Amino acid sequence: MSPSDSAFTDTLISRSFRERIVLVGVTFPHSTAAATESGLDELALLVDTAGADVAERVVQRRDSPDPATFIGKGKAEELASICLAVDADTVVFDDDLSPAQQRNLERLLGRTAIDRTAVILDIFAQNARTPEGRAQVELALLRYRLPRLRGRGTSLSQQAGGIGTRGPGETQLEVDRRRLVRRMTRLESDLRDLTRTRRTQRKGRARSRQRTVSLVGYTNAGKSTLLNRLCGADVLVENRLFSTLDPRTRQLSLPGGETVLLTDTVGFVRKLPHQVVEAFRSTLEEVRESELIVHVVDGSAADLEGQIDAVRTVLAEIDADGIPELLVVNKVDALSSLDPGAAEEVRRLLAAHPGSVTVSARTGEGIDHLLVTMGDRLRVADRVVELVIPWARGDVLAAVHREGEIVGEEAGEQATHLHVVLDDVGRARFREFLAS
Q1: Would you call 110 helix, strand, or coil by DSSP?
Q2: Are 57 and 31 within 8 A, CB to CB?
């Protein structure tokens, strides 16, 4: 990257000192005050990971976002007074801000205003290690900054003149925009080349009949620790959000004698920025091509089902929601230190997700059972077939439900699409309904 591009790729939170941050959360009719507080708790962890300190939290209830300032002019003026009182450098919103809202807020507050997406991108920028990871993060940052370039023109321009007016400032804005778009085009080209390389590698693994399993989960759920425990790997483990951005693949021997490739992936989070999902799509294809997803859940987390839903939302976004999933509740060694209500939440989770297993990646508890279960799930996956049954053949649909184990069902316009576990006899019986 040339020096001229550096203005677009600087981190969004200063690293020269510990910024003081005011967090802002808004409760809308479709949400609850508890959900807003939970979101701010997580945002506080993100801010700490980014290298800043939370000085104050502000919560508001609204029927809908204000188009100009998101929180309304009166609340923005109140927020400005709070920022002065706590000597805050930056205000961080738990919801996405439009470029116009961000500009208006910064004018009213007299300080930087950013949103949750900016904080996550900032953390990603800190943690990317490999050339591919750095390229993916830079592309995500540029996609976020492009629509906001107009408001940053005075700081990027080397010429006099206000942004948004005719003359030198507007000319420099267009120069900056073209420079940024050229850089994005180059990064997209580089990542396409890397995607082709990854696909070639996956085809090679398919020819060698190596089976693939992906570890997915909420950030800091313990995926890297579990990879180390299962494979004797030496992957860096840190107790911080998004410490793993670059996928790592290791060989794993299962009790039945099978050898599989186990891949650790980037952690997910609520409201994971669309720019991140798009930029990391080539990496996340590893998940989509897996034969089994091991979904790791932090058993000590406060909102287990919310974290599971957030992960599954991203899996659906990358078209990986149809892959067989094994839910693994990690950190069970910490349950004894939790209050009884938290331990009960884990028990409810296990009851709601039959077939899930519990482990402690740190101590090794439950690992043998996990390995056996993974082998069993992969053998079941060998017998999963897709059937397309016309609506007129209700008799066939009923027979399939009697004879097989339905693992996925989708209603189409003309037929029902089923993913079902069948033995050899069942496959032969329903052969005419096999998807081509």
Answers
A1: coil
A2: no
Q: Parallel, antiparallel, or unpaired for β 384-390 and 415-421?
A: antiparallel
The type of residue at 386 is E
Q: Which fold has domain 3-127?
A: Rossmann fold (3.40.50)
C-alpha distances out from residue 73 to 76, 101, 296, 417, Å: 5, 11, 43, 52
- Measured from the Cβ of residue 47, the count of other Cβ atoms closer than 10 Å reads 23
Backbone angles phi, psi at 199, to 5 degrees: -65, -40
Q: Where are the beta strands (DSSP E) in 88-158?
A: 90-93, 112-115
Residue 425 token pair: 């006899």
* Residue corresponding to tokens 């398919």: 206
- Rounded to two decimals, the pTM is 0.73
Q: Could you tell me where the DSSP H helices lie in 318-416?
A: 340-352, 367-381, 394-403
**The 90-93 sheet, strands edge to edge:** 53-61, 20-27, 90-93, 112-115
Fold equal for 3-127 and 210-381: yes
Could you tell me the CATH superfamily of domain 210-381?
A: P-loop containing nucleotide triphosphate hydrolases (3.40.50.300)
Residues facing residue 213 across a β-bridge? 262, 292
pLDDT higher than 80, residue 337 = no
Number of residues in the chain: 436
| 150 DSSP 8-state letter | G
DSSP code for 322: T
Write down the H helix ranges in 232-294.
Answer: 274-279, 281-288
Q: Where are the domains of the chain?
A: 3-127, 131-155+162-191, 210-381, 384-433
Region for residue 110 given its phi and psi (left: phi exceeds 0; alpha: psi -120 to 50; beta: otherwise): left
User: How big, in percent rounded to 5, are the helix, strand and coil portions of the chain?
Assistant: 50, 20, 30
pLDDT by residue (tens digit) across 262-315?
A: 988 878 888 887 777 777 776 677 788 888 999 999 988 878 888 999 999 989
Q: List the beta bridge partners of residue 56.
A: 22
Average pLDDT, the chain: 82
CB environment 144-163: b (16+ within 10 A), e (fewer)? bbbebbbbbbeebbeeebeb
Question: Helices H, strands E: what count in the chain?
Answer: 16, 13
* CB contact at 8 A, 272 and 140: no
Residues 6 or more apart whose Cβ sits within 8 Å of residue 106: 112, 113, 151
